[in-house]
Amino acid sequence: MKKTSKILIVEDENAIRRMLIKILEEESKDYILEGVENGEEGLKKIAESNYDLVISDIKMPKMDGEELLIEAKKIRPNLMFIMISGHGDLETAVNTMRVGAYDYIPKPPDLNRLLTAVRNALDKGKLVEENIILKAKVNKKYEIIGSSQPIDHIKAIIAKVAPTEARVLITGANGTGKELVAHQIHQQSSRAGYPLVEVNCAAIPSELIESELFGHVKGAFTSAVKDRSGKFEAANKGTIFLDEIGDMSLAAQAKVLRALQENVVTRVGAEKDVKIDVRVIAATNKDLKKEIREGRFREDLYHRLAVILIEVPSLKDRKGDIPILIDHFIKKIAEEQGAVPKKISQEAVNLLQEHNWTGNIRELRNVVERLIILSESEISREDVELFANK
């Protein structure tokens, strides 16, 4: 079903206000139109109702259009505004655009330009709204669940580190949620509007890792049939997350070190450097200091990466979060399956809290899903005893 668009006309001249409403009513039956005669009434309406667009005169008694725009943006930062004025000049237009207007149209308005501006403003507003919803879903997907002291400590570090450009090395056992920390750092940073590119260094064969990270030119090797950019270039202005960096070859480590030192990469087989602007977050389940001693990891790269160290605790060190995590997974899995969340007894929760979670949060999530599938109306202690160790 096509969404209707709610438009508010703020204009002190009654004839012009009625004319604008009539023109827009004839333009589309999907427009719901209201009109008020000054900025104060407009602001009250905006505070009370959810408009998609405001078309406002600038010169009005009580509160002019520019004041209305500024105050309305405090209430609804993403609300689209089109400003109109018979007293306008270039400076007025620039000022209204600077404080958040989508467009500025002088009086008497050119009707074709006005209708085009209305359509474009509504389209942009819908796109902004969709992006906000999508971002909220992404943020929820990578939310760090828990309120234990170790998790509160990590959240506090993320809040301090994210707005900076500092490189971060995340350590912790498999399944602890290192990627969630990386995503939170990116989402809370000034780079959030740009890509977060993830690279699992352990999953890429050593002979392909350089091409994957830095790209290649045609003919660089047998299967290089065309030029290809790498992950560093794909992450330009954003963040690259090098997961399991402890599994990277020494040759690739040397090139990553150069990229960090000089902010350039060289595609395999190329002579020309490509400039990059990338924040690097790395993660590993290995003891990199031990890897350095045994000659498998470069010490200079370690010090480049480990400006900030974040150690993600194992589930055994944050058992107080297990009931919260169980509740979270039950709701999330039910949502994914389009089902009603299944109840779980306190005895079942207590038993799961005592379990030795060697696979950490990833294992807990799998067990909760198994219990949901195999149990009856409520997950019981007996269900945990039967199915949790499978």
TrEMBL record:
Coiled coil: none annotated. PROSITE patterns: RESPONSE_REGULATORY, SIGMA54_INTERACT_2, SIGMA54_INTERACT_4. Keywords: ATP-binding, DNA-binding, Nucleotide-binding, Phosphoprotein. It comes from the Bacteria. Residues 6-122 form the Response regulatory domain. The keyword Nucleotide-binding applies. GO terms for biological process: phosphorelay signal transduction system; regulation of DNA-templated transcription. Residues 144-373 form the Sigma-54 factor interaction domain. The keyword Phosphoprotein applies. The modification 4-aspartylphosphate is found at D57. One of its GO terms (molecular function) is ATP binding. This is DNA-binding NtrC family response regulator. It comes from Myroides indicus.
